[in-house]
Description:
The chain is mainly alpha-helical. The chain contains 13 helices and no strands.
Amino acid sequence: MDVLWITLPIFGLIALGWAGAKAGLFDGTTASGLSRFVFWLAFPSLLLTSMAKAPAPTLTQGSVLGVWVGVLLAGHILGRLGALALNLPRTSEAGIGFAASSGNTAFLGTAILASLFGPEVLAMAAAFVALENILIVGLGVAGLYLAKPAPDPAAARRAMLGGLTNPVSMGALIGFLIAVTGVHIPPALMRPLDMLGAAASPAGLVALGIVMATSVTKAQSQSGRDIALVVAIKCIALPLMMATGMTLIGAPRELALAATILAACPSAVNVFIQAQQAEVWGDTAARAVFLTTCVSIVTLSLAASLAV
């Protein structure tokens, strides 16, 4: 029962955005503005302060980060192999690989972890999210552009390099450097950063609800096999693979649980946004984000219950 008091309010913010959009209070422009605020200001601030306040990373944490990236890459490959086995088109292969490996760790996952763990785990969560943005998102977006009927290698290269310089990655990198060097951030600077960071999850979750309400209806006619494969991998296989990997390396319990909870997060709304921009698999991406979010109410709550 305790875990419900942690997860239900978080999903409630998504529902609030959804209801507001259905009532006509919000639209896609609102979601876009909120998402930009979170992406450029709030979430980079959260990652920066989380990492800056934590102790310098250890060797054990390095192996945990390695397993995190390895399992996400395995999820991407598993999605592509599943699409090949089902004889799905190249666009589906790219979309499924992306949606099966890139989760809503930023808006949803960190909000849950903040309710369960202390600063050290939150700092590792910041590193998890940064690595996902640099490596997994870049790989997923590049795959979409290469799957187009007329492949766009230049856009694929920009996607791969963009993960290194986006605000989320830069916020985590600056926080990491502060933790390693022991530089003191003046309270006059830390307080506004803390305030921005505190707004990241609520604003992001409401934006997610608005996006789901304004985009999901476009995907009713898309392939059910694509979506079923994404749900099976993202909501079930990936967290199980993450828990197994963390157990095999003997990761500290709290870090293993945090990684498993983040792995259980639904497909990121960024998958839908990037698919729309690439004009590849966009409508199906909207449906995949919606359904994985619905399923994760159960699977993510189960993962979080292990930490209660």
